[in-house]
Amino acid sequence: MYEIGKREIDAVAKVISSGMMFRYRGGEGGWCDKFEEAFAKTIGTKYALSVSSGTGALECALIAAGVRPGDEVIVPAFTFIASPLAVLAMGAIPIIADVDESLALCPKSVEANISRYTRAIMPVHMSGRPCDMSALKRIAKRRKLVIVEDACQAAGGSYRGKRLGSIGKAGGFSFNQFKIITAGEGGAIVTDDLTGYDKALIHHDGGCVFRKHADKVSTPFFAGTNFRASEITGAILCQQLKRLDGILRRLRARRAAIRAELAKAKAFRLSPCNEDAGDCGVSVPILFETVKEMRAFLKRHGHKAPFWMGTPIDTGRHVYPNWTPILKKHGAFDPKADPYRIHAHRQISYSKDMCRKSLDILGRTIALGVPYDSTVADARQAARALARL
Ligand SMILES: Cc1ncc(COP(=O)(O)O)c(C=O)c1O
């Protein structure tokens, strides 16, 4: 969380005083609706739908993009486990591909993992760092695949003038506590496709029973679930969205200052970035030649750096060897509901060392958290000191 305060408190107070915390049956035209309109405008899509989590948003995005049970969806080896879990929840099969030095999905590895059953590619813009969307779009076009963006960590980021989340067929965002804008929990799905939006609408709301204009939905109802957002969430997000540009400006100014200094370092180099201008500025990853050098640097200097320093390889369920239920192919609560058993068109095997390139890169990387509360001058000075080590 970067910024929250009086505006959000006042908005929540208004919701509670109104007595209407539910977005339907009286809540129509309220905060969730306002947020959706503003978010779609910000991201540049025709439709946005608030949901209760990023995981729910990804499920809805997969449905909106036409992913079906048994389809294979290529996900990166470095992402929160929620990305492949959403794929499994739809009855589809996650196929794990490598990331490259940008820490994002490697287009070459995507190509190598396409099978006759592949339906979608899920680029994940980790830490607000844009994936190589041009290369991925080329592959998707040539191989007739759809792109479903996991923009959970990347609200407001962009690639070649388009906001992340709006480049593929559908995109999912998370607004949990640790995201660029937040309501503690929450999410949104964006798309330009009306049928896809309607399917997401039905899926996220049990069967769309509460919605006033339910009879106008273009798709026949099916049994969905409940990812509805509350008016409290909607009210907070309306205020958070107003802060988004300011948050990004602040992050990016500090990131630029840090990168300019760290570019002069001899002990490491900056991790490549697929698009500098579109990076949200959450972190600055640096890359060492060897795992040993990275560990030694961290041991010697980690504690005195004024930055938060994290090692992507140690981020638990953000790295595929720690996706235990997936590696064991326990795809659901019961074998009779398990996509690996009932929907997969072929035998899938995973192993802890299947993406060695990713493990090597993640194992040589340190991610510096961009210090939001520092001045640009302080951030620059600290980076200068680090570069001299
Ligand atoms: C890349 C990524 N995808 C999906 C999710 C899932 O979001 P949520 O926790 O809101 O369900 C997260 C959340 O941490 C994430 O970082």
From TrEMBL:
<dbReference type="InterPro" id="IPR015424">
    <property type="entry name" value="PyrdxlP-dep_Trfase"/>
</dbReference>
<dbReference type="InterPro" id="IPR015422">
    <property type="entry name" value="PyrdxlP-dep_Trfase_small"/>
</dbReference>
<dbReference type="Pfam" id="PF01041">
    <property type="entry name" value="DegT_DnrJ_EryC1"/>
</dbReference>
<dbReference type="InterPro" id="IPR000653">
    <property type="entry name" value="DegT/StrS_aminotransferase"/>
</dbReference>
<dbReference type="InterPro" id="IPR015421">
    <property type="entry name" value="PyrdxlP-dep_Trfase_major"/>
</dbReference>
<dbReference type="GO" id="GO:0030170">
    <property type="term" value="F:pyridoxal phosphate binding"/>
</dbReference>
<dbReference type="GO" id="GO:0000271">
    <property type="term" value="P:polysaccharide biosynthetic process"/>
</dbReference>
<protein>
    <submittedName>
        <fullName>Uncharacterized protein</fullName>
    </submittedName>
</protein>
<dbReference type="GO" id="GO:0008483">
    <property type="term" value="F:transaminase activity"/>
</dbReference>
